[in-house]
Amino acid sequence: xxxxxxxxxxxxxxxxxxxxxxxxxxxxxxxxxxxxxxxxxxxxxxxxxxxxxxxxxxxxxxxxxxxxxxxxxxxxxxxxxxxxxxxxxxxxxxxxxxxxxxxxxxxxxxxxxxxxxxxxxxxxxxxxxxxxxxxxxxxxxxxxxxxxxxxxxxxxxxxxxxxxxxxxxxxxxxxxxxxxxxxxxxxxxxxxxxxxxxxxxxxxxxxxxxxxxxxxxxxxxxxxxxxxxxxxxxxxxxxxxxxxxxxxxxxxxxxxxxxxxxxxxxxxxxxxxxxxxxxxx
Length: 281
Known about the structure:
By secondary structure, the chain is an alpha/beta fold.
């Protein structure tokens, strides 16, 4: 039986690492978020397991992730590697000693990613694919999108996961270039998408607004299908504007509304995450 999986959440101890992405607008996140904090949320929402994600770019983050990987509700870990430097990225990948390792990423912001298709980067991502790992990324700009597509064409076996719906302009009600970027990415069969909300949108919102997500979720549903979409809370970041239960309920309901077939809903709720991250049981 397929598990229900939250495919994107974080743990951290606030004093243990600097989080440069956190500003004075994020005071609600300036505390520890540990497995004991998440457990009742998972149980209340009927979620069996999670994929825990890196949240800072530093080697010590992987030490912390190795600790969190031991929690029985964690099904997979997406670790940090310094992707801009292929040699260092390879060295960090070789050093990783994390059970349940299922993917890698680093925080790229609006970096144009020109380095992504250089020979050394291609070689590194081939190794990522050969190890059965996925790559998580949020391509926001058209330049980033072109580079991610180019990489996917060079390494079709690499499983790429676009986090947070690719950062649609939900806060402004905008559409392009997001829609065009996501449509182009959908042409690469190795790309899947997380139905989740990132910190930019959450920060811009005054309050959680599930209705504002509907057309964006409908669009990715049309272009990716259930077998390339996965549900994700982005806990604890989502707590800026919603409870875990409210966010999960809305994301699930909006996605399920696009797919009345129970098989498709099973994929959304856990099947896609199981396959893309090769989580096992």
